[in-house]
């Protein structure tokens, strides 16, 4: 342990030096690994990924068993916990086209605050969202002393495949088992760079902040072959989504049989759970193959965590270092009868996020059952490192829970989702009375603009198998309606608005001098950076998004149609309903493309601004 020695009025005073901070930031990682529960079921089938190194980290730290993200996609979540603010405050919801710095020009991001305080700050790969990788905008100037991009080897797979079917994205779930060195495949070079930095830190003056961004287990599911070998396909357990003896979907749709789910107007949304699926579930073998590939990626990341932690211990810096293991959000890995393989939903598996904190002076092997938020991480690290907030942060420091996992903590948690409608209410995770038992339980409550509901009792139903507020008539719905309303009443009014910026942060920049402030334009989904460097009628921000989507920018006007067609395709998947609009493909053309939106989506003026469209009809 390092100390600072001062002398004031002749008396020696000893102050502890600020600790170092090491962060493992994992992408798309849910809690289906061994730190969070048993690895095998009663029949010996594999329930969770095997993660002995993360388990060891948990033994020297505190596991937060109920951490939740504030947005179940990469861009919205990372902008939130890196700024210390809720998405409703930042206005950053989508992954593209704006980087975090463009979307929130006034923010003091977590690594930026540490850099201001004199830390050496180093970032590696995906810290801010990956879209920023395409444009080179990882906030290098403001947030980092050094930033590194590391590539990976892609040896010819010994096995590979693409899984398609209901509940799977149109691109399918690609996976590959690649032979070779785990330190060069997938995220291997991220870990190798972390080890190099740790050894370099040992030669210099601390303190330091090091954040390693691991892409896996984000799709495609590529991992070293040795980790696939841990999981024989026929030994993978399927998700437990039903109570024995009950027909799951009959509860939500009276008269539905055989797992055939009537769609809401044939639109592709299952109202009771908000799962974007239709028809029959994936075959068992496909579901097992998908879970096997995901687990292999998780075990590969676990191996890399072990290598980095071994280097930290060998460097002699472990006693002076806070270690964080976290993900940006969860992931649905075949829940809801093998029909949900995604994030981006107000479903428990998307909201629930791993979080482990190991810090000097605090006991190891602790587990916290209270509901906490990723937005609590920023104030926690400021507390542990003796820093002031740069502005009023949305979260609360978790230091009291590190000191005593049973200390009082009854803050509700929130997870927003502005898809399919920017005016949807956030999910709330909080304690309420269970009308069937009379006892207080932790519930997750979510509803959407089109009056679809979700209510899960996290205490009684930890696998989230029963929605207590299903669509349509149900014996349970009236019983739990008061509980649902009690939880919804806890949501602060500002969450029900499209976005609120704290008065202390309000910034009225107008970079394109069009009379609309930047923050309002971001709120409406357009870019405040309307510069067009090459004069091709595509703004620079639009070109960055096109590059991210794989288009070649050739300096002429032809790409505008490609851009808007891609935009229309994406929005058609997310905004489905009965309001008809026309989307102009080019400012000097009379071509129009019709797409559908949810009814009651916007008032006409706001709809026209958000989509740059002309509203021509409303059913």
List keywords for this structure.
alpha/beta; nine-stranded mixed beta sheet; 619 residues; Alkaline Phosphatase, subunit A; four-stranded antiparallel beta sheet; 23 strands; 20% strand
Structure characterization notes:
It contains 20 helices and 23 strands. The protein has 619 residues and is α/β, with parallel strands linked by helices. The chain has two domains: 369 residues, Alkaline Phosphatase, subunit A, CATH 3.40.720; 88 residues, no CATH class. Strand 18 and strand 19 form a beta hairpin. Helix 1 packs across helix 10. It is globular. The termini are far apart. The N terminus and C terminus are likely disordered.
Task: Offer a quick outline of the entry.
With 619 residues, the protein is of the alpha/beta class. It folds into 2 domains: 3-244 and 280-406, Alkaline Phosphatase, subunit A (3-Layer(aba) Sandwich); 531-618, no CATH class. 27% of the residues lie in helices and 20% in strands.
Number of domains: 2
CATH class of the largest domain: Alpha Beta
Largest sheet, strands/sense/barrel: 9 strands, mixed
Q: So, CATH architecture of the largest domain?
A: 3-Layer(aba) Sandwich
Amino- and carboxy-terminal Cα gap: 68 Å
How much is the average pLDDT? 74
Tally of DSSP helical segments: 20
Strand content: 15-25%
Subunit arrangement of the protein: single chain
Q: What would you call the shape? A: globular
Number of strands: 23
**CATH superfamily of the largest domain, please?**
Alkaline Phosphatase, subunit A
The poorly predicted ranges are: 3-15, 131-135, 241-278, 471-476, 497-511, 522-529, 545-619
Q: Which value, in Å, is the CA radius of gyration?
A: 24 Å
């Amino acid at each position: 342990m390092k100390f600072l020695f001062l002398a004031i009025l002749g008396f020696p005073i000893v102050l502890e030096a600020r600790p170092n901070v090491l962060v493992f930031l994992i992408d798309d990682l849910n809690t289906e690994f061994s730190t969070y529960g048993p690895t095998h079921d009663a029949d010996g089938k594999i329930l969770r990924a095997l993660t002995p190194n993360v388990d060891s980290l948990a033994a020297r730290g505190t596991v937060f068993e109920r951490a939740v993200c504030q947005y179940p996609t990469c861009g919205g979540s990372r902008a939130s916990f890196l700024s210390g603010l809720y998405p409703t405050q930042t206005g950053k919801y989508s992954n593209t086209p704006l980087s975090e710095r463009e979307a929130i020009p006034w923010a003091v991001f977590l690594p930026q605050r540490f850099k201001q305080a004199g830390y050496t700050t180093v970032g590696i790969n995906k810290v801010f969202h990956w879209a920023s990788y395409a444009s080179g905008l990882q906030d290098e100037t403001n947030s980092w002393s050094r930033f590194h991009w590391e590539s990976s080897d892609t040896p010819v797979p010994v096995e590979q495949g693409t899984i398609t079917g209901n509940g799977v994205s149109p691109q399918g779930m690609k996976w590959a088992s690649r032979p070779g060195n785990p330190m060069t495949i997938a995220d291997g070079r991220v870990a190798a760079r972390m080890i190099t930095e740790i050894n370099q830190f040992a030669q210099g003056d601390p303190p330091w902040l090091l954040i390693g961004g691991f892409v896996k287990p984000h799709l495609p599911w590529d991992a070293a072959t040795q980790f696939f070998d841990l999981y024989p396909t026929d030994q993978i357990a399927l998700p437990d989504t039903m109570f024995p003896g009950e027909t799951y979907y009959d509860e939500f749709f009276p008269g539905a049989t055989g797992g055939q789910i009537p769609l809401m107007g044939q639109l592709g949304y299952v109202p009771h759970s908000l799962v974007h699926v239709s028809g029959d579930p994936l075959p068992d073998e496909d579901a097992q193959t998908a879970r096997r590939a995901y687990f292999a990626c998780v075990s590969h990341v676990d191996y890399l965590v072990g290598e980095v932690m071994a280097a930290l211990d060998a460097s002699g810096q472990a006693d002076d270092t806070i270690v964080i293991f976290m993900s940006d959000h969860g992931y649905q890995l075949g829940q809801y009868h093998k029909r949900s393989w995604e994030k981006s939903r107000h479903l428990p598996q998307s909201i629930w996020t791993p979080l482990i904190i190991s810090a000097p002076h605090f006991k190891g092997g602790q587990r916290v059952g209270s509901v906490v938020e990723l937005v609590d991480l920023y104030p926690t690290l400021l507390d542990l490192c003796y820093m002031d907030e740069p502005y009023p942060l949305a979260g609360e420091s978790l230091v009291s829970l590190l000191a005593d996992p049973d200390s009082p903590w009854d803050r509700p948690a929130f997870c927003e989702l502005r898809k399919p409608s920017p005016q949807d209410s956030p999910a709330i995770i909080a304690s309420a009375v269970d009308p069937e038992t009379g006892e207080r339980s932790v519930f997750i409550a979510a509803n959407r603009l089109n009056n679809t509901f979700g209510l899960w009792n996290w205490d009684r139903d930890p696998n989230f198998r029963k929605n207590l507020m299903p669509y349509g008539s149900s014996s349970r719905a009236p019983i739990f309606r008061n509980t649902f309303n009690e939880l919804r009443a806890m949501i602060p009014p500002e969450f029900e608005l499209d976005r609120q910026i704290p008065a202390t942060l309000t910034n009225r920049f107008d970079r394109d001098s069009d009379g609309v402030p930047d923050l309002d334009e971001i709120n409406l989904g357009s870019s405040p950076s309307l510069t067009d460097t090459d004069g091709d009628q595509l703004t620079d921000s639009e070109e960055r998004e096109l590059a991210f989507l794989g288009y070649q920018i050739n300096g002429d006007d032809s790409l505008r149609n490609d851009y808007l067609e891609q935009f229309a395709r994406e929005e058609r998947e997310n905004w489905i309903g009965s309001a008809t609009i026309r989307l102009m493909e080019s400012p000097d053309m009379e071509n129009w493309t019709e797409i559908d939106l949810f009814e009651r989506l916007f008032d006409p003026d706001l709809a026209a601004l958000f989509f740059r469209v002309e509203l021509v009809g409303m059913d």
